[in-house]
Specification:
- The protein is α+β, with helices and mostly antiparallel strands.
- The chain has one helix spanning 40-56, and strands at 2-4, 7-11, 17-25, 62-65, 81-88.
- It has a single domain (2-88), classed as 2-Layer Sandwich (HIT family, subunit A), CATH 3.30.428.
- It is 18% helix and 31% strand.
- It has a five-stranded antiparallel β-sheet, with helices on one face.
- The longest helix is centred in the middle third of the chain and has 17 residues, at 40-56.
- It is globular and about 35 Å long.
Amino acid sequence: MRAADGFVAIRDVAPKAETHLLVLPERHVASFREISEFPAEEAKRMLDFVAETAKEAGLEDYRVVVNVGEGAGQTVFHLHWHVLGGRVEGMPA
C-alpha cells in the first residue's frame, strides 16, 4: 500500500494483469463523471500520484484505466484508477 496527500494505492484483490494497482482519492467521488468536484490543483496531484505509483512499482510501460458507469464495467462506485502493467487479461499485448 502507498499513501500520500489524500490518495492511496493498493493492489487489486482480483488482478487482471501481472501488476494491477488501484489508486483512490480519500475524498468520495462516485465516478470520473464527477471529476470536476476536484479543484485543478488536486486533480493534478491525483494524476501525479498515479504516475508516481506506477514508477514506484517498477513499471515503465503500463495502462491506466478508469471504468465509468455500470455499462463500462464499474462495480465500485468510488472513483479509482487501474494501473495495469505486464500482460493484461483480454487485451492485446
